[in-house]
Specification:
This protein has about 850 residues and is an alpha/beta fold. The chain folds into six domains: about 80 residues; about 130 residues, Nucleic acid-binding proteins (OB fold (Dihydrolipoamide Acetyltransferase, E2P), Beta Barrel), CATH 2.40.50.140; about 220 residues, no CATH class; about 55 residues, no CATH class; about 45 residues; about 260 residues, Ribonuclease Z/Hydroxyacylglutathione hydrolase-like (Metallo-beta-lactamase, Chain A, 4-Layer Sandwich), CATH 3.60.15.10. The protein is built from 27 helices and 27 strands. Strands 18-17-15-13-12-11-26-27 form an eight-stranded mixed sheet. A hairpin with a 4-residue loop joins strand 26 and strand 27. Helix 6 packs across helix 17, helix 7 packs across helix 17 and helix 15 crosses helix 16. The longest helix has 29 residues.
């Protein structure tokens, strides 16, 4: 016999706010896809539907049988969709005086070698964070370049760069008035298919441009904020930092508490952050419902007996503690950065407390819908933020799936308090994992499963660390008590860090890894979760299940119609700055990487670009890694690639490298048991029967490492590709002399990054009429590459000259008959 009745069926009709929030989100999504439609058109469409419904209701007011209830729902739904669409369209509109327009004009001037610095007058919008540079956002009101000054509006991101190691920038706080002198740039575009879309992320935050300051003379403090609320928030943040620095002994625990209380992760070292990401415990560092609950609801509970002793009537007590609690939470939200999770938690707590003061119960899903409406109306682009999706997905799953999963627990387990404590934690963690799975797989391609187990001890440890940290902050006027709380917070915080790092070592590899970026699959996954939430309503469950299957089937049909099932050869020239890295994916599912980009004290392109690309597309093995020659901009990332994925063989030109970097690559390959093969002109690489890899160079030993580059000709069907490494005039002359009939191609990788020491006339003439000439080169490089002469020669052949400095990664695809370019940013 069960201990408790099963959870009642979930009925969405009794949660109008949730339904409206879903429709509002649908309107935002549609408007984002149809960006050419303006806000007035969307508003007019919604108003038209509403007027029609009202007219019909009035005309049929005396009929017994009428469609008025249905049309009323249609009208409300249309208005919700129109509101979301019009807000998104208005959000995406950019005025002529917006800082984004000024950045575009600055970029055009820079392209004409006009590098005149820009001066901006602005107000600091958030707390500066220090990573490799001090970063913060600011709201601009005017700008000047040369002698011209005018009004400018909008928000931009500032980076205070310390290139000399001696710059001392002024300490800035939220609301400070400043003057900046430096370089203004448009938001960056994604450079490679696996890159995080940082520019799009900033745009969704309302940021329109990026500004870089190179030395301390470029920042002038003008005046502090005059707003009392900002002054109060700054003072509170300062007191928090002072209390943590004074009473929490362990530096690691102080850094952890800064993240938990102030949402400042800049003091946590990167290895610890990686451990939190690997274990799926990163959500613990996000200031959200747990933090708002401890801060606000703790005060709310303490105020009742305190106010009751003052003889205040019960109803007034409820309203007084509600107002005081929400005022404190509002200040805390500003201090902690007002992220989406904080906004959601604040709005939900506000509705719950106000409902209790009005003696009206609050439904969790309805309250969640109200929070979504408040956030999306204020900032519609939040819908596309991973933080919004994870926060709302987790809460929705906790509310809907936890009761169902708990009801499935055997009675003998539920009769044990200890057993139920563990199982209940696992059930809660499982529900939250399911709710966040679509967003995690869509954005990161990784669903940590180890976090299901680690959440059981980690969540209580986080609560204890945060609770003791708050106790330390609140009792700083009583030093012995604050010190006791600080010591306890330090102990609990260090325990949490040990648990996370141990979990990363033992359970970090327990994860489901697959990127889901097809919209139809994501919709099907979301509908599947909705079907599970509505499991106790058979009709709704069946209908939603059919919709999920239909969505998945539509995605498969679309992919089939687009020819994705047909075998093809993909060649991706990755943007690795001033270096080379070309990935060849054959029709038979084989993979060859030719060169691996640059490694320097500042960057490792293998780790930063190539390995994420391989992970993003599920490539766990390279059949061959070809290093054309031993220059650092071609072999720098090889060691990282060798450590990250299995490599069938390492192909080299046989000319010994004379650098520590080359020795490191060879030692890494040897330690991993990767065979090293030397090739010469005339060799063939056996990779895939459908693709032929011919080695055309080097034809002989060369004193120049560049002329000793491995030159590869790829043949697939009737299409031909020539990858020349860094071969210069002498190496090219050898190619023309020995293989004159094999140089006519459809695609050529221009030699030596477009230098005038390569792409001699004989080679260009021998190439015939290629369709594409690809130049792998950095946007800014000290060599002044590419040179105009070789680009002009390739353009004269009729080839489309594509520079990675301008295009980002260049992705070309062959079906065996022709070569076309893949628009990877929109696929």
């Amino acid at each position: 016999m069960p201990l408790a009745p099963p959870p009642p069926p979930l009925r969405l009709a009794t949660r109008p706010a949730l339904t409206i929030a879903v429709l509002l989100g649908a309107g935002i999504f549609v408007a984002d896809a149809l960006s050419e439609i303006g806000p007035l058109m969307w508003a007019a469409g919604g108003a038209t539907v509403a007027v029609y419904a009202a007219a019909y209701a009035y005309a049929t007011r005396r009929r017994i049988v009428t469609l008025r209830p249905f049309l009323s729902m249609v009208a409300v739904g249309a208005l919700a969709v129109a509101l979301g669409a019009s807000r998104e369209a208005a959000w995406g509109a950019v005025a002529e005086t917006d800082v984004a327009r000024v950045a575009e004009a600055a970029a055009r001037a820079d392209s004409l070698d006009d590098r005149t610095p820009i001066t901006l007058w602005a107000t600091v919008a958030d707390v500066p964070r220090a990573t490799w540079a001090v970063r913060f956002t600011a709201d601009v009101d005017s700008a000047a370049r040369g002698h011209a000054r005018g009004p400018v509006a909008g928000r931009f991101q500032v980076a205070l760069v310390d290139g000399t190691g001696e710059a001392v920038y002024p300490t800035l706080r939220r609301g400070d008035r400043i003057r900046l002198v430096g370089r203004l740039e448009p938001l960056p575009r994604r450079r490679n298919p696996a890159d995080f879309e940082y520019g799009a992320y900033l745009a969704r935050q309302g940021v329109g441009a990026m500004f870089e300051v190179q030395d301390e003379t470029g920042v002038v403090f003008l005046a502090p904020s005059r707003r009392p609320s900002v002054r109060l928030a700054n003072a509170a943040a300062g007191r928090v930092r002072q209390s943590l620095a004074r009473y929490v002994p362990a530096p690691e625990a102080r850094a952890l508490l800064a993240a938990l209380v102030l949402a400042d992760r800049s003091r946590i070292d990167e290895a610890t952050l990686d451990a939190f990401r690997t274990t799926g415990l990163m959500h613990l560092l996000a200031v959200s419902g747990l933090h708002v609950g401890l801060v606000g609801l703790g005060l709310y509970a303490l105020l009742k007996p305190l106010l009751g002793r003052l003889g205040i009537r019960r109803r007034r007590v409820e309203w007084t503690r509600t107002v005081v609690t929400l005022a404190l939470l509002a200040v805390y939200a500003v201090v902690a950065g007002a992220s989406v999770s904080i906004q959601r938690a604040f709005v939900m707590v506000a509705f719950v407390l106000v409902g209790r003061a009005m003696e009206r119960p609050a439904d969790a899903l309805n309250t969640l819908g109200l929070a979504a409406i408040a956030i999306l109306v204020h900032r519609p682009a939040a819908l596309f933020d991973v933080g919004f999706q994870l926060s709302f997905g987790a809460v929705a799953a906790l509310v809907t799936l936890t009761p169902l999963l708990t009801a499935a627990v055997p009675d003998r387990v539920r009769q044990s308090k200890a057993g139920m404590l563990v199982v209940g934690s696992l059930v809660t963690s499982g529900a939250a994992t399911l709710g966040t799975a679509p967003a995690l797989l869509a954005h990161f391609g990784r669903l940590p499963v180890g976090g299901l187990v680690l959440n059981v001890p980690a969540i209580p440890l986080t609560a204890l660390t945060l609770g003791c940290g708050l106790g330390c902050i609140l009792t700083q006027g009583v030093p012995p008590l604050a010190a006791a709380f600080g010591a306890a917070a330090s102990a609990f915080g260090q325990s949490l860090l040990v648990l996370t790092e141990t979990g990363a070592d033992r359970l970090g590899g327990v994860a489901y890894e697959r990127v889901i970026d097809a919209p139809s699959v994501l919709v099907a996954c979301t509908l599947g979760l909705a079907m599970l939430a509505l499991w106790r309503r058979p009709v709704a469950r069946r209908r939603i299940g059919m919709a999920a299957v239909a969505s998945a089937a539509a995605g498969l049909w679309t992919g089939f119609a687009a020819g994705e099932h047909r075998p093809h050869l993909d060649v991706i020239f990755l943007d690795v700055g001033q270096g080379d890295a070309t990935l060849v994916d054959t029709p038979g599912g084989r993979h060859v990487l030719i060169d691996a980009g640059l490694r320097s004290p500042y960057t490792d392109q293998g780790e930063r670009v190539i390995v994420p690309h391989l992970a993003r597309f599920g490539i766990r093995r390279l059949d061959a890694l070809v290093l054309t020659h031993a220059d650092a901009d071609h072999i720098g990332g090889a060691a990282s690639v060798l450590k990250a994925v299995a490599v069938g063989r390492l192909i080299v030109n046989g000319q010994p490298g004379e650098t520590d970097l080359w020795d490191d690559v060879i030692r890494t390959a040897d330690s991993l048991g990767v065979p090293i093969h030397t090739v010469r002109a005339g060799d063939t690489l056996a990779v895939d029967p459908a693709v032929r890899f011919r080695v055309l160079g080097p034809t002989r030993p060369h004193p120049s490492p560049n002329d000793a580059s491995i030159v590869v000709r790829i043949e697939h069907g009737a299409t031909r590709w020539l990858l020349t490494g860094d071969a210069e005039v002498e190496g090219e002359a050898d190619l023309v002399a020995r293989f004159p009939d094999l140089l006519e191609v459809d695609v050529v990788k221009v030699g030596h990054h477009g230098s005038r020491t390569s792409s001699a006339g004989d080679l260009v003439l021998s190439a015939g009429d290629p369709d594409f000439a690809v130049v792998s080169v950095a946007r800014r490089n000290r060599y002044g590459l590419p040179n105009e002469e070789p680009l002009a020669r390739w353009s004269a052949t009729g080839a489309a000259v594509l520079l990675t400095s301008h295009e980002g990664a260049v992705w070309l695809r062959s079906d065996g008959r022709s070569v076309r370019r893949v628009d990877w940013r929109n696929e």
